[in-house]
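pipeline stage [seq->struct] | target=Derlin | organism=Florenciella parvula | residues=188
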Amino acid sequence: ACALDVISPFSLYFNFGLIVYKGQFWRIITNFLFFGLFSLDFLFHMYFLVRYCRLLEEGTDFRSRTGDFVWMICFGATLMTMTAPFVSVHFLGSSLTFMMVYVWGRRNEHVRMSFLGLFPFTAPYLPWVLLTFSVLLGNPATIDLIGICVGHIYYFLEYVYPQIADLRGWRWRKLLVTPAVVRHLCGQ
């Protein structure tokens, strides 16, 4: 819609002052929907968002657990939104994409990949390869690093912490529990 001038990006971007003082609450959500104007970078982000969202949702981690997948997105979006005012980031769609890629890469650590058929690597390095490519295209690293950091926080709390808590006999073994309301809304 922005590429066709139906909607201006200025009505979508994250602005703490406009959200709090002017009541423009839609900006909390719409900043995740803008990936820039139509360009090579836009195409790459759309491809990776669709591909890795699908692979995460259909993979072993979230198969038949749509509520948990939605909760992961909500958790990540909340952390990114809390971070945005401190780092002057106005659009978080790219960060959300990098979060998905990071979590997928960590959960599929033995998958072999190559970038443009030239550079072979394993899946955990995919976010870093994409970050390098994004910076080479002239984008700031801050936006993508937010996604990688939030993805790491989610990965740690969802997959690493429960194992540590189980080994040490801690009472709270799982910190990220999907609320029953979210599960119900997602048909679980």
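stage status: PASS
auto-comment: The radius of gyration is 17 Å. The chain has one domain: 37-186.
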